Amino acid sequence: MDDTERRSAKRSRFDQTEPEPRKASRFDRRSRSPPAKRPESGRDRSPNANDPATEPKKSPVDAAAAAAAAAARINAQLQAKKGIQHVDVPPIKTATPEIKTEDGSPDPANTINGEMYIADGDYIKDIEVNDLRNRYLLTKGSTQKMERKLTLKDVTTRGSYYPDKSMATAANPPLYLHVTSTSKTGLEQAVAKIEELMKQELPALVDERRFRRRDQEQVERDEYGRRKWPEEKIPIGLESVPGFNLRAQVVGHGGAYVKHIQQETQCRVQIKGRGSGYLEAATNRESDEDMYLHVAGPDPKMVEKAKELCEDLIANVKDQYEEFKSRPPRGYGDRGGYGDRGGGYGD
């Protein structure tokens, strides 16, 4: 080997001018990183990337129109949830062509005067009934059904009743009747029938007898505020004597005589005065007057009848009283004294 070959021969890895190619190893698979993605090489299944530079810009007008459409859609959804509301809007003119006469003037049949108007080919008139006294009669279903049979026209109730009409709004107008007809003559007939019902007088809604009672004279009342019944006082006119129980003879055994008069006349009968045992509510003691019968009741005729029965009772007691006084007093020693079975009180 000459000197030139000896110099060019490889003696060590430090003598290499170029890096030695790396040998493949089985550990390279685990440590190998995924290849970097190149922007120009996309996957076949992926959609084409949108280049923002090539996307057309939306004009401000299109954005405003889209926002308005979205707002209208949201508003429609809200109105659908709230339900159908009748809005008081001006009548919509029909799109029917204007009919002209030969001289060029408009047809008078299409001209409606007053509050009558045309909408969708129908003649319509709205009649307000919010403040009418007989609005309940006009808005009843039976009344409107009768109007349909008589005039063959459609009558519906719209709006809401307001005690104060200033509370009404455009969305909720005051109570009114919506009358619809296919002809002007038919609408006028229906309106005339409704106006006739509006002038109809209603009966009294409140019983006038309730107010009549206030005009009556004030009834007399006692010290406790109770209504004072008609009353009568029948004096007995007898003095108590020993051996003759005046009170027991008047009222009867167990009050039988007084109870009989009360059942016959439905009046209250009481014995009052000195020796009666009746205590007055005001003084809690007997009255200083002589003994008498007191009669009271709601019916003056029955009070008068009870007075007559009491007078008959007192007349009978007076007879017994005089008979008792006519008997001579009996002593203890004679045959008619105390213990005699044939004489004494109650013979």
From TrEMBL:
Entries under Gene3D superfamilies matching the protein: K Homology domain, type 1 (3.30.1370.10)
Keyword RNA-binding among record annotations:
yes
Q: What GO molecular function annotations does the UniProt record carry, in alphabetical order?
A: RNA binding
GO CC aspect terms: nucleus
Q: Where is the composition biased (Basic and acidic residues)?
A: 1-46
Bias-annotated ranges (Gly residues): 334-347
The annotated regions of Low complexity compositional bias extend over 63-72
Provide the protein name. Answer: K Homology domain-containing protein
Q: Does the keyword Amino-acid biosynthesis apply?
A: no
Q: What species is given as this protein's source?
A: Colletotrichum noveboracense
Q: Where is this region: Disordered?
A: 1-112, 321-347
Q: Which residues form the K Homology domain?
A: 228-315
Keywords from UniProt, A to Z, are: RNA-binding
